[in-house]
Amino acid sequence: MSIKKFEKDMLKGRQLYIQKKRGDLSYPIHRHDYFEIIYYSGSRGKCLLNGEEYEIGESSIFFLTPEDFHRIETEDIKTAYSINLSFSKSIIDSHIGDNFALSAKVVFEPNEFLKVIIKRIETLFEKGDEFTKSEMYHLLNALLIEIIKTGQTAGKENPYMHPVIGKAMMYVLSYPEKNFTLADIAKLCHISPAYFSHIFHKETGKPFKKWLNGIKIEHACRLLENSELSVLEISLECGFHSISHFGKIFKNAVGITPKEYRKRV
Questions:
Q1: Closest by alpha carbon to 173, among 51, 257, 52, 84?
Q2: pTM for the whole thing?
Q3: Is 254 left (phi over 0), alpha (psi -120 to 50) or beta?
Q4: Angle 166-56-262 from CA coordinates, rounded to 5°
């Protein structure tokens, strides 16, 4: 599967930027400083969001806030497309921010009202209308309210993650094959292991070791599915010190052994 390059700052000083993409919509792990709504049509794949995996179905919507780490993997389906709306907080109506928690949301099988709004946005986009017009802003905020009301919360509750934890998660997610320890990451962040452990649990709701093992197991599953490496080689690739330790952690997380998992997929 090809991984497209992405522009980290799509806004470039604008308040709103819209894109329509087709086919393979995959992107590597990243984050950005603006909000984003992504609508998928006819796609199949997965979105890793703040360490948790969500299916991208035939029709689904993701609302991403600043500091949300995410990776997109989709099949290259020619008829599939996505509409990406990237926008700054300045164009979100104040009553939305005051009355709703702006946390990451996922909507599977959008209702008819959502589909109507998306279709109207798509029509304005394809006509080449100026995105600064009031109708576009009205549609965006209506879309956002409906997503918040109907969507399920995805990942962490707090959309604005502590910058130290954000840096640590980004680093680990970028190098899943490395055998990190809590002390390694705390040193990278220039804080003590005890303080890092405290704020990591506070921000994510999980101990660092449990979250790290989850990332390793996800990487192992991908290797079991898409490579010819032996189970021993995969355990080493994922940073486990022994194959028995790898097998124990894998079975606790997935419910079956690595060999059984490979046979099933």
A1: 51
A2: 0.61
A3: alpha
A4: 90
